[in-house]
Amino acid sequence: MDLSLAGDVASILGFAAAATLLWGLGRTKSHYTLIGRVPELVDDLKGCASDLSECINNFEGRMPTIEQELANTETVLESIKKNSPREIKKVASRLLKTIKKYDINGTNAKDKVQAIYRDINKLSGKIENLQKDLKWKM
To answer: What is the DSSP string of 89-128?
Structure first.
């Protein structure tokens, strides 16, 4: 009976150790992805924001370009969402929903593009701050 109890305890401890190890590996992978891949994505996101800014200045004449830039922004946001921690994923998901609901022919279209532009800049700033914070954590 004692060996059975010892075996059960050892099994539980082994499972806990394996779970802890897998959790730590996931955090390490996430950290290095955030350091390695996400800076490129932030640069891409800033490029999209810059292009949107230029389009906003001549909104009526640049509608097709705006739609193209929003499509480019969507692909960058999908990659950021896939490679980022939870707090960044939430912001990227909200921004993606906003972009997908955007109608270039709708009311207040220019104001909505300006709001998307602001949100893109907020997200890129948030990611950059997170990367700076990670330098101190590891």
So the answer is: HHHHHHHHHHHHH--TTSTTHHHHHHHHHHHHHHHHHHHH
- How far apart CA 103 and CA 91 sit, in angstroms, is 21
Cβ neighbours of residue 55 under 8 Å, at least 6 residues apart?
62, 65, 66, 69, 113
How far from chain centre, in Å, is Cα 127?
8
109-137 helix and 63-83 helix, angle to the nearest 10 degrees: 30
Burial class of 109 by CB neighbour count within 10 A (0 to 12, 13 to 18, 19+): middle
Query: Hey, what CATH topology would domain 37-137 get?
Result: Four Helix Bundle (Hemerythrin (Met), subunit A) (1.20.120)
Instruction: Looking at the chain, list the stretches that DSSP marks H as alpha helix, in order from N- to C-terminal side.
Output: 2-36, 38-57, 63-83, 86-101, 109-137
pLDDT tens track for 86-135: 888 899 999 999 999 988 888 888 899 999 999 999 999 998 888 787 76
